Amino acid sequence: MVRSLWSAASGMIAQQTNVDTIANNLANVNSTGYKTEVAEFKSLLYQDLQSKTTTANGENKPISAQVGLGVRNSSITTIFKQGPMLASESDTAFAIEGKGMFAVRGEDGVVKYTRNGDFRFSTGQGSTLVLSTSNGLPVLDSTGRAISLNTSQYAANKISVNANGQLCYPDAQNNPQPIGITIGMYQFNNPSGLEKTSDTLYIPTAASGAAMNEATNANLQKSVIRQGYLEGSGVQVVDEMVNMIVAQRAYEMNAKAITTTDSMMELANNLKR
């Protein structure tokens, strides 16, 4: 009966992790570019109750006698599905259609990736305009360099971006023309293997593989950039509420298993009286 105590306790711990994951999803229901996370589980070791299971005639049975020892969290997987397109009045709001991700340079110099296209032009050194995130991290172009424009040549409110990610500026006839800078788009073989950080930023790992540049890799399906839109959170509130109810009931059942085991042990102890 002690096995049931530990198995049920592991179930309660696992479901607590599940609820934590669901709560984080609900907390980010309005976070731009956020992707839903799903807690996944696996069973623990099995214990042999009988090393040799036989019938009354001494023949081996086709099914062994084993009992499980509980459950544990195996992973928290990020689901990279296309989020809803939300209209924005900002000229520097960009949404991605496809598997691509924006690249930004962190304060530590490490290149990070995101689906959050809520950018803005900020004043940089030497009278330049730098396309950056809301936290001031510079956005990188298709060559891996920060997108920087000279204020003497370009006005931020006249810059547009086409579907290919090319920055454009109006000519003498007021027709937008590419200026030779393209917003970088990068893909990963296994995006679920990316390391999650704050601000919906991701860092490549050995599991995710190296970033693949859409501008230089002809085998990748090119993503489309939509100016004036933001990609909303991938969280479905109804699904998360259902998942929370299921997790709560599972937690309650594991707690009931502990109280039932406690009652059985109390009964066994009282047999000698």
List the topology elements.
Blueprint: H1 2-27, E1 37-43, E2 46-48, E3 66-68, E4 71-78, E5 85-87, E6 94-97, E7 102-105, E8 111-114, E9 120-124, E10 128-132, E11 148-150, E12 160-161, E13 166-170, E14 176-182, E15 186-187, E16 195-196, E17 201-203, E18 212-213, E19 224-227, E20 229-231, H2 237-270
Antiparallel strand pairs: 1-4, 2-3, 5-20, 6-19, 7-8, 8-17, 9-10, 10-11, 12-13, 13-14, 15-18, 16-17
Characterization of the model:
The structure is a single chain. This protein is α+β, with helices and mostly antiparallel strands. The protein folds into two domains: 2-80 and 239-270, no CATH class; 85-231, no CATH class. Helix content is 22%, strand content 29%. The chain contains two helices and 20 strands. The strands form eight sheets. It has a four-stranded antiparallel sheet with strand order 7-8-17-16, with no helix packed on it. Strands 9-10-11 form a three-stranded antiparallel sheet, with no helix packed on it. The mean pLDDT is 90.
First-to-last CA distance:
20 Å
Structural class: alpha+beta
What is the radius of gyration? 27 Å
Q: Taking all residues together, what is the mean pLDDT?
A: 90
Indicate the overall shape.
elongated
